[in-house]
Amino acid sequence: MLDKLIIQKTLRVPTSTGAAGDGAPVARQLDAALLDAGFSASRALLEHVGALAPGAAMDLAVTTVAAVRELVGDHVQHNAYFLGFPHDVPDTVEFWTDCLRAAVLTGGGKVSDERLRDAVLTGGVNLLELPGYGRYQHTYADLLAAHDDLIASAGDRLTVLHLGDTAEVEAQRLYLAMAGSSTPLGEADLVILGELAQACADGAQPADIPVRENRAVLNAVRLVQGRPLVAVDTTTDVLRLACQVSGGDPALLTPTRFRAFPRRERRVLLTALNEVVGASPAKLGDVARHAERWKRLGERLHPHEYAQWPHAQEVFTVARGERRVSTLAGRAEAAVRAGEIAPAAAVLSAAPGLLLRSADRLLRLAPAAERDAVVDAVTGALGTASGRVLCSLREHVGNRLTRASARMYASRSRNAWIGPDQRPPLPPELVADLSARLDAEIGARLPVWDRPLLVDPDVLDVALPLSGKAAEGGFAVLPRGSRAAVSGELLRFFTYWRQTARTTDFDLSVLLLDDEFRSAGQVSWTNYHHGGAVHSGDITNAPDGATEFIDVPLTIGGLYVVPQVNIYSGESFDEVAESMFGYQTRTKKQRGAPFDARTVRARSQMRGPGRVALPMVFAKGPDGWEAIWLHLYLRGRASFNRVEGNAFSTADRVRALVERQYLTMSYLVDRWRERGEVRVWDGSVPDEPVTFVGLEAPDGLPEGSEIYALDRLSELIPA
Predict the structure, then answer these.
(1) Three-state secondary structure readout of 34-50
(2) pLDDT of 65-86, one tens digit each?
(3) What are the E-state strand segments in 578-694?
(4) Model-level pTM greater than 0.90?
């Protein structure tokens, strides 16, 4: 399992330790199988497989192919409701009329239009339970037989797989990178980190673990294994650990039902609490924020039985409200309410990150006489705050010269709310001053290499990965706000889901918006055709998995194409056994089955709290179409969600995100240019070792080169 995980995360195939022999035939088979999935083996990888004994070579090849097929969604059968999709899809009204005729026809003969109308108006027919509707009427083999082979195109994706070190070395490297990441990981990556933490418990450990959720994941493994905890320095660290080891949410966004803790574990948790509070009683101020969770945890830890740890007992005293502890944020808020803005900034100076997150509010509220003092406090915090906070503030400041058309609030769980932007813009001279100070501090923290810096231009519009929670797991998935050029003649969206226990109906839809973000049409199960776009047909039950497709020609009217997945009924995105969204690009002459891995440009998981998923938006600009990642969920209704019912809320969120100026990799590249030479990669292999920054690692870079591909871009965020 580790080998498969490593391949999917890094696109590096661990070196096999199997016996040597003649694996050349297997290497050729591997090369062909990978090409069929849109991948290519590097020369070093093919040579390695060819030098293995046939058995070891076949084991490595099978693992590799299975990993990449799953990565792009090719591990399941993507059937379509209409056998000939995208051709031979009937008109929507004609299709429903034929279904009705089949439903009310009894004893042969014909059914009049009047009889059909009466059947519908009297409520005697459930349109979604008509015979044959919503269920496949043909097998996957029938679908493949009805389609010609895909005609290869020069624009088809070809992703290179590289040869790595042994699985143990690769796992250790990946573990240290993820555990020591300076940016929060997404839910899928936290699960991977937990698996790696178990496998690498006896190996080297990260020198620093900046993200507290990562600490919780590592310490949960250490607690169960009876190892000492690491990097526990707040009371909330202990609470996160208890949630993680109970199978709950270490981010503390959702409630956790704590499991029973053996006496050994209770002693470890209470000892940690006692040491944290004993060293700094002020840290009791964090307890009230999560008081209810602490009460529930106290029921499991029985702190009253351990008189030897009085400081740990104080935590639960505060949680029960029997003792009040003032907090730094509370003192600052009291100063703000009293109109003392500069003193509030002085109070927050003890917590640089909190001060910088509050900088906009303080600067807006500060009277002219106090503004310089607030700016000085903010400037003083720049040197000690994390690089991620600095980059977040720099992005924020860059969007404060004018009022936004709408203000979007996106939570860590990827829910999004919209409201009017009632903040007055910041003065241009203040924005320029703060931007220059932030640029200088961020630039000074960037890594410096002895090798030349070589940058792939395709990476420049990727938004800085400041948080893995603003994205989903998958293949070629970019952070929210990232932009990527789209080639080809048409887009093909697909969504796949497999229900766990209940009948579940996901509906793939497309909303079209004009240049003012007003609705310009839609394609869904209620409207199979619009402006050349075609829906593949509605599937309403997926015990063995189901797929829906939509083809959108890039000549379609409208400026924005917004694919979305609505849950019409059944299980949520978090409850289904599996769900995914992706898009392909094709030429009109390629033909082929509805799904072909070689044309998949990106595939993301759908794991979110809402009932409507908004993975991406496609925008038409002066230089052609581009994909913009959203990674948003709308709460929606409990059931019966349709694209027609959320057009307004979807358009508002799309507009807010599209108009926002995100800090991208080009920003970091500009900072590097201020310090030395930066070369733009033209596709040729350099003559000397380089530091390469791009979406994918090219084949053939000189030995000694350092590669920062998509899986490592977060490592470039300053510490």
Answers:
(1) HHHCCEEECHHHHHHHH
(2) 999 999 999 999 999 999 999 9
(3) 578-586, 600-605, 612-621, 624-634, 678-680, 691-693
(4) yes
